[in-house]
Each structure stands twice: as C-alpha cells, then as structure tokens.
Amino acid sequence: MGFCSEATISRIYDSVLQGKKLAEGECRIEVVDSHFVSVGLALVVMAGARLAKAGESWRRVLEGTQRAISQVSMLGVFDTIRYFKTS
User: Fewest C-beta atoms under 10 Å: which of 22, 32, 45, 48?
Assistant: First the structure.
C-alpha cells in the first residue's frame, strides 16, 4: 500500500500510479491519495500502520485509512502574506 501526498500538488502521485501499472500482475499495490502533506499525511499513514500491525486484513487497512482521511483536518496560520504576494 502506498500513501502519497495530495495529488493536485505533487507529481509523485502520478509516478506511483505509473509504477503500479508496471508491476501489474506481479504483486498487489494499492495507491492512496491522502489529500494531505506533512503532518496530515503522517496521521493517515500511522492510522493504516496501526491497523496492519494489529493484523487487520488488506481491505480493513484500506477502509481504515480512508476513514482517517475523512477525519483529518489541517489548518495553517501565517503571520504574513509576504510570500503569497511573490508566488
């Protein structure tokens, strides 16, 4: 199972999907778009890891990570918009 950062801001997701196509038939690969970067991604991965470590099935781990994605919210606070102006 591969967890990727937000597909709309990272080309990594597309690369992982290409890798999945190349390995088709050799092994089971599930690609999960976490919809997050940084801490949000870590929380989703840790939720899946806990389930896998507990011996849950592949399907239950995938369901649990999807549930974690729906429960995580991220909020960013910036003290200045200076860098937004230049980008």
Answer: 22
